[in-house]
């Protein structure tokens, strides 16, 4: 349903996947399934990495932060989209849209930062195993986690500040299931979007630094792993690193592509699909990917199901 006089209204109309009622319901059901899967998976990761004394190393400490981040990240956009589809009303107020911009950009930037820290953590664990606890000591992990969350907040503040000063001249219809920055740029007047472009360039530079750090970390990791004489040792190392590398590649590549590709006046279903790859899929499948070949997490999950957890002193105090 297209609302009248959208140019004079303060809010926006989100047009996600289709105008057909049946397809909207299908979209809502699929998103609901993915949202519930994301909630369950990430809550399980947070629970077992908190309760199991064997999962108190820096690697699981950052994994717990990633799960908390993913839980929040997917909650910014998906519930609103489900509600809009079921109610057959895509209207979102300007205030809600600005809040989505803040939380979405903040959490997306935080995700890039924490994935970078996790790659460094794996680099230290594999390349310097004897010095792992010395390098990744609890206080350092605390400061790293704090820096990750603060860096994301700075990104959100920058995007939100610039968005507040955009004057929207065109019909306020966003061909997306949430308030996406590239879609908002399409609706801006004359040179109003230049501030957003400037922030995009700055964040792209920060993202490039993170991506370069990740590439360097994994270059050293794979170089070290290939020198391991034991086939079992190589397999264990690869099973730990490859899922993380897959998550990093999917999230960063699709996110950068969506934000930096030239904007088009004609709506495209491809834009919506691409956004799902970095906004919905990572929070949903991260718990599965990180748990699939991790025997410690699977063992802790079995203990959780059987109610065998007991309160035990943790060995990694920053957890």
UniProtKB/TrEMBL annotation:
Annotated Gene Ontology cellular component terms: plasma membrane
Domain G-protein coupled receptors family 1 profile, residue spans: 41-290
Cytoplasm as UniProt keyword: no
Highest taxon above the source species: Eukaryota
Membrane topology of the entry: Multi-pass membrane protein
Chief location: membrane
GO molecular function terms listed in the Swiss-Prot or TrEMBL record: G protein-coupled receptor activity; olfactory receptor activity
Localization, UniProt: Cell membrane
InterPro entries: GPCR_Rhodpsn, GPCR_Rhodpsn_7TM, Olfact_rcpt, Olfactory_GPCR
Keywords: Cell membrane, G-protein coupled receptor, Membrane, Olfaction, Receptor, Sensory transduction, Transducer, Transmembrane, Transmembrane helix
Bilayer-spanning residue ranges: 28-48, 98-125, 146-173, 193-216, 237-260, 272-292
Keyword Membrane: yes
Pfam families membership: 7tm_4 (PF13853)
Function in brief: Odorant receptor.
Protein's UniProt name: Olfactory receptor 14J1-like
Organism name: Orycteropus afer afer
């Amino acid at each position: 349903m297209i609302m009248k006089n959208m140019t004079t209204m303060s809010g926006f109309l989100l047009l996600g996947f289709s105008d057909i009622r049946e397809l909207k319901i299908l979209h809502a059901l699929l998103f609901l399934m993915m949202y519930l899967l994301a909630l369950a998976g990430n809550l399980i990761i947070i629970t077992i990495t908190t309760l199991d004394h064997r999962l108190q190393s820096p690697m699981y400490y950052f994994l717990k932060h990633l799960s908390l981040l993913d839980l929040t990240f997917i909650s910014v956009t998906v519930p609103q989209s489900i509600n809009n589809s079921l109610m057959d009303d895509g209207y979102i107020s300007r205030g809600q849209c600005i809040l989505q911009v803040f939380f979405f950009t903040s959490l997306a930037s935080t995700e890039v930062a924490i994935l970078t820290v996790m790659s460094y953590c794996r680099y230290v664990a594999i390349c310097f195993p004897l010095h792992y606890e010395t390098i990744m000591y609890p206080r350092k992990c605390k400061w790293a986690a704090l820096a990750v969350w603060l860096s994301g907040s700075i990104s959100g503040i920058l995007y939100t500040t610039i968005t507040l000063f955009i004057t929207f001249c065109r019909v306020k219809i966003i061909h997306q299931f949430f308030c996406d920055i590239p879609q908002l740029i399409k609706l801006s007047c004359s040179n109003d979007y230049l501030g957003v472009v400037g922030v995009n360039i700055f964040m792209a530079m920060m993202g490039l630094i993170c991506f370069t750090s990740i590439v360097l970390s994994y270059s050293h990791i794979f170089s070290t792993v290939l020198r391991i004489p034991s086939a079992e040792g190589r397999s264990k190392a690869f099973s730990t690193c490859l899922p993380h590398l897959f998550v990093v590649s999917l999230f960063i590549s699709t996110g950068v592509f969506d934000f930096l590709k030239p904007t088009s006046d004609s709506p495209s279903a491809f834009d919506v699909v691409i956004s799902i790859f970095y906004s919905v899929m990572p929070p949903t499948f991260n718990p599965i990917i990180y748990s699939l070949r991790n025997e410690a997490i699977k063992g802790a999950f079995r203990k959780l199901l059987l109610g065998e957890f007991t309160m035990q002193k943790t060995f990694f105090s920053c957890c």
